[in-house]
Amino acid sequence: MAPLTDGVVTLREWSEGDVPALVAAAHDHELHRLTRFPSPYSERDAHDFIAGRVVPETGFAIVAVQDDRLLGGIGVRDAGEGRAQLGYWVAAAERGRGVATRALRLLCRWALDELGVKRLQLVTDPTNLPSQRVAMRVGFRREGVLRAYLDFGDRRRDGVMFALLPGELAPDRQ
User: Cα–Cα distance between 73 and 58 in angstroms, integer?
Assistant: First the structure.
């Protein structure tokens, strides 16, 4: 598949060359608190992720167009019956610059237009307000709290469900 780009960020396939930057980004406490990144995160974890042995999804590295610098990651997986589940993260040094919004908009447009998905959904930790704002900027609607929805190893956490239907993608205002 050809990379997806808006001229500022590109979504491209992960490569073995991304391992050092992925491992460095994964040393962020917030990623471990709000996502399912293993802690500690090793080179073996990165190799397994890139090889597709961790999450059954179509995953993309989010990189800067100007220098191919790793900014984060985003993925989509089939949730059955025309639904797809999305997830994303951004490296600590890159947050607050619109990276997640740009990447999510690109992935949603591709999933809706090219894959023909009828419902895109994402679930955030209730305390992850920046991620919730990203979802809403792209056009997702908050549907509610799913109690004990997220499995974080030895504990379960609530999740906030957001969904986007065809025709609801918000225009790019960046």
Answer: 11
The dihedral through the CA atoms of 113, 48, 53, 86 has a sign that is negative
Sequence-ordered list of residues with C-beta below 8 angstroms from that of 85, at least 6 positions apart, any chain? 76, 77, 78, 79, 121, 122, 123
Q: Which residue is it, tokens 């205002």? A: 173
The tally of domains found in the chain comes to 1
Contacts of 46 (CB under 8 A, 6+ apart): 18, 19, 22, 23, 26
User: How confident is the model over 137-159, as pLDDT tens digits?
Assistant: 999 999 999 999 988 767 899 99
Query: Is 169 contained in some domain?
Result: no
User: 46: domain range?
Assistant: 4-118
Residue 53 lies in a domain: yes
In a domain, 89, yes or no: yes
Give the CATH number, domain containing residue 66.
3.40.630.30
Question: Rounded CA gap, 20 and 63, in Å?
Answer: 14
User: For residue range 22-80, what is the model confidence (pLDDT) as tens digits?
Assistant: 999 999 988 878 888 888 899 999 999 998 888 778 999 999 999 999 999 999 999 99
C-alpha span between 87 and 145 (Å, rounded): 17
